[in-house]
Amino acid sequence: GAKQETTAQYALDAATDSLVTLANNEGTLGTVAKITVAGAEVDLAPMGGFEIVSPEAGTNTAYAVLMMEGADKSGLYSIDLETGAATKTTDLDGSFTGFAANLPVM
Q: Is the pTM of this model over 0.70?
């Protein structure tokens, strides 16, 4: 199959409450943006998970299980990879330490 000419790896950094990029060779994080919900910056707990689903080259949808500091429940959010804006899709019971998503088989 075809290969992408460039790639980017993303992560969530609970220490800075930010969406970051990972530079594999240098081992440094580059800040994309603070995570926001409804336009307000949030305080992320170090729990949860993050996954990007790519059905085709150039099409990426990011999802995260986020828990805010002090909360007793998590939520499933979509994350805008350019702005860090998080949109809740559903509430989840409890806290999570991992998360994986996949595309439906067609």
A: yes
